[in-house]
Amino acid sequence: MGIRIDQDKMQAHLYTKNTSYIIDTLEGELVHSYWGKRIDLPESSPLVPIESFVSFYPNPNKLNQTYSLDVLPREYPDFGRSDYRNPSVRIRLQDGTRITKFMVQSFEIIEGKPGIEGLPSTYSENNDDVSTLKVTLKDDKTGVIVELFYSVFGEYDALTRYARYENTGCDNVELESALSANVDFYNDKDFDLVHFSGSWGRERAFNRLPVGKSTHIIESKRGSSSHMQNPLVLLTRPKTDDLQGEVYGMNLVYSGSFKAIVEVNSYDTTRLAMGINDYDFDWILTPGASFSTPEVVMTYSDEGFNGMSHIYHSLYKERLCRGPHRDQERPVLINNWEATYFQFTQEKLEAIADSAGELGIELFVLDDGWFGKRDSTLSGLGDWFVNDEKLASGLSGVADYVNKKDLAFGLWFEPEMISVDSDLYRAHPDWCLHAPGHNRTEGRNQLVLDFSRADVQDHIIHVVSEILRSHPITYVKWDMNRNMTEVNSELLTPEQQGETTHRYMLGLYRVMEAITEEFKDILFESCSGGGGRFDPGMLYYMPQTWTSDDTDAYERQFIQYGTSFAYPQITMGSHVSVSPNHQTGREASLQTRAHISMMANLGYELDLSILTEEDKEEVIRQISFYKSIRKDVQFGRLYRLLSPYGKKGTCFLIESEDQSRYYLYYFRGVKRLNYGKFTLPLKYLSEGCYTSEIIRFTEKTMVLRDPNGYEIKDTLDECVIFPSSYLNNFGYTFGYQRYDFDSTMVVFTKNES
Ligand code: DGJ
Questions:
Q1: Which residue's CA is minimally distant from atom 11 of ligand 1?
Q2: I want to staple 716 with a disulfide (CB 3.0 to 4.6 A). Which of 411, 541, 733, 735 is the partner?
């Protein structure tokens, strides 16, 4: 595993356990030869057949008229020399032209994996099997160098890419577009495009469409990775599904506006490219200066979407998330948001904490509303000092009370925002993003702090750190509740204004690095109106994300299904909330609500102090059971067996790290009467015999009757011993659906042989 370079041919073969990625040089141009299942190379002959009928195509080499850049599978395409597809690099020169000719200079291997200055990225640890290829390209006219970095994670089967620009010339140039990665699949358009779209409350919905013969753009233009699209795109064979088939993935390690392009040319070559969105981006590169793009994590699997997800999951769990919490079980928490919203009193919080302590909860999280003059969304953001009208004994008083109940204490912040009605705004009205002569557009009644400014970054680092230093806080929820407008910074020159969004991201990353580095023991959970910034960039600093504000148990099946394509279950916060659900009005049993949350990091978000005694008993059983399985569930391997977009319900299977226990979760929709039982092959159990145990928390019984008035019994068998071959191939048979949104959870434990 690693990298092999043929310096004569200027060819590199990057290979992981199961994949190969090959690039070549053709008349000085860097071309893409192959990406897919691992192959061995023949002694001679270029991999890419370059001769085409190109008589009508402009042709860069008068002496070799058999190819045109427009049909060449290019590895990092530039602009203006006969390739009419979307470029990776477009630079505006001082003479106004944008034509560049980036030619290969060198191939070089670097041991391990260098970090990217100021940006999050995957990393290698001590004895990892990781090496990096640096390919240097140069445009002679401008003197701009582009270094393409490819890191090969052999054991993980993953490849990462980014580009670093350096201006070795004498003039300023303007980067108009600087993507992170591009792959051309030569003469191959047999793909579907899969992407994950949505909105607030319905993030990361699975979408699939044939690529056809056109261009598709998946993007966010909002200054965050967004609820609307996730920076994950897949090219997949038309028959690929969760269980089988080929899939290629690109996932951008970035939390700002991004763009992915899928474009098919007239020779049926498919181009897949990804990086910072050029919609609101340009960057002045002065002589001697450098610029690095974010990283793209690239995966190939021929074992369906599950195979691809396992690559992302392992890499992100172990080589993206950092800090002590990376390897620690996550606590069961209670968050007061849906229990009280802004209208809490100290007594109410204490009552919730009393119940939480009795139920076995481990962490109490105080959400929005504890600071400044914050009784609604109208005011207070930026004033990070306690609201003593609400909390007479201060944060310390609440924390002490909570700690006495054997609960750790966690706190909500929204550090990137400012309310117009706040002391901070009155003192620094220029600290928000704004443009002279334009209205300051509010969203959720708030403005966005200009995180591109070092003074704003320093202030936030200072005030947040002071609170964390002076209270016994073990968890922070870092929220961000609007998209950017009037993206303009008072401290940048007119020419630099196009740098503001990216400088904001660099500023945010600097702030998060400083705070998470100092407070390593605190567990940070990112949030953006739920999952509006669920991306690998955030996970580098904060190892879990609040998945969605939609806590409805049925909707969560879709959201957690889509989220799990790239992001492991340990990164997802999932809370049991009240029924009927606050967002959808839908009723679901307490058991179903717990089952869906138990496939991720279980929490509660409802007024525990008013639960009935019966519900309290059920919650106690849920929490104690979850604690007994959470290591397996949080660190285990997730398989999607049934998609919520089908008609048979949603099914997940989690395998413990040692493959001796499996957790089966099955969720159904609205009950339709008189359907038979349903058997589902489990496919993935390791060889052996398993004892099954059905997990029920509820003691409530529901009597259903057949047409003759006889009771329909719940016919699931308890504690049956099954051979794995039976479960994998014939399947597990679920009982009749008893009510709307009924769920079943079964644990399979391998018998000692
Ligand atoms: C949006 C978050 O997603 C919610 O969980 C909650 O923290 C609110 N913000 C508070 O304003």
A1: 368
A2: 735
